[in-house]
Amino acid sequence: MRLFILITTLLICRSVSGGVVSFGGQYSIKVSSIAEQRFKTIYKQKYDFSCGSATLASLLSFHYDDVVNELNVFKDMFEHGNQEKIKHQGFSLLDMKHYLSRRGYHANGFKISLQQLSSAQVPAITIINNNGYMHFVIIKGSTDDAVLVGDPAIGLKSIKKTKFEEMWGNRILFVIQDRKEIAANHYINDQQWDHQIRANLGLAIDHASLGLFNVLQPSSVDF
């Protein structure tokens, strides 16, 4: 009997990795692997230094219903940006701002708290320090004690707020300022969806400073 259970379990696990679990006859259930679930609302970056383009493409596709792919975002920002700087330092928040402007969005970087972002009910791109590895991620939602992060390297991850605060050195949140109603529909918190954008996001970071925020120089400006 134990052998039968073991064999059955192994067969089901094989079927899960293939995407469909069959129970015989006409009954089958389509399933997703854990890895697929982690990347359901965040694109997995395809290149070592493409976390910026993968993050921005994910923000538009999964939070603003504006579907774009990482490669197109990468090509556009590289074509219009400082290519030598990008080759050595990667994309900056200013590159993202210019890309969004070309696409008809108004976006800026803000030095605000997580609570203010949660009140605004909009996602944000920021840079975190994960064991010395500087990385663009999306803050996709929050609760009183946790932050839901979309990371193009590892997928969705819930991080305790105290831990996130330690990783979040520059305290800059890059936010799209229009189409807030769409963004609110995709923001995740511990209450019901809130379609009313309540927070005053405060004063925007100036354009020159945005250009200094990339994964290799995240803290070069003292605000």
From TrEMBL:
Residue ranges of domain Peptidase C39 in the record: 45-175
Alphabetical list of PROSITE patterns matching this protein: PEPTIDASE_C39
GO terms (BP aspect): proteolysis
One annotated Gene Ontology cellular component of this protein: membrane
Family annotation (InterPro entries): Peptidase_C39
GO molecular function annotation: ATP binding; peptidase activity
Protein name as annotated: Peptidase C39, bacteriocin processing
